[in-house]
Every structure is written in structure tokens, then in C-alpha cells.
């Protein structure tokens, strides 16, 4: 199977690998697993007072397409508002990375992870 250059680039040089402090009220954490293959992805965002995502980190225990998808998402959401980031779709990820059909679920994992991170952040805010 031939993978796109963009996919290989994100796979070999993943952006924003790491961890943000889960106890920080400005940090939202999304942790999702893919039932199809058991891969797990954690994506975190740090949101500033204006509601803009100023930092994003991920850790993915999974296949190359899942790693590339999460790497791409962390790049995309930085500088975006929560509403903008929430509109990100797996189709856009799959298109950007030219994912083959069997790897579409890897991009769905990344969409689910960013949505979960946004929800977690919003839940934290509403508890304050
Ligand atoms: Fe093997 Fe995802 S199925 S790493
Ligand atoms: Fe399952 Fe990629 S996330 S194979």
C-alpha cells in the first residue's frame, strides 16, 4: 500500500507529541480508543482566556495513520477557537493525508479525540 508524502512526514516527524497537565483547568483531555483495532489516542488542548487554543499535544498508541492524523489535528487546532476546532471532520483529515479506505477509522479516532478534549474542557469550565 502506498502512503502519501504528507502522511509519511507526519508519521516520521510527528508534531506536538507530549502531555499537558490534566489538572490545569485550562486543559481539556480527550482519550479515545478504536474498537476496530484497539488503538488508543490521547489529545489535549490548552485554551486561553479568549477561548482560543494556544497549545495542543497528543500521544497515540497505534498505527502510522492514527499517529499522522493526531499530529495533523494538533497543528490544525492551534490558534483556532473551540467552535472552529469542533467543526474539524475526519473527512478533512483523511483527504489531507490521502488515507486509504481501510485507514479511514484512524482519522475518525482523531476527530473523536479533539471533540472529547473540547467537551472535557467545557465540562471543567461549567464546574467552576
Ligand atoms: Fe495495528 Fe492499528 S491495527 S496498529
Ligand atoms: Fe486502527 Fe489506525 S487507528 S489501524
From TrEMBL:
Any one of the GO CC terms: cytoplasm
Domain NIF system FeS cluster assembly NifU N-terminal: 2-127
InterPro entries hit by this protein: ISCU, NIF_FeS_clus_asmbl_NifU_N
GO terms, biological process: iron-sulfur cluster assembly
Pfam families: NifU_N
Protein task: A scaffold on which IscS assembles Fe-S clusters. It is likely that Fe-S cluster coordination is flexible as the role of this complex is to build and then hand off Fe-S clusters.
Name under which the protein is recorded: Iron-sulfur cluster assembly scaffold protein IscU
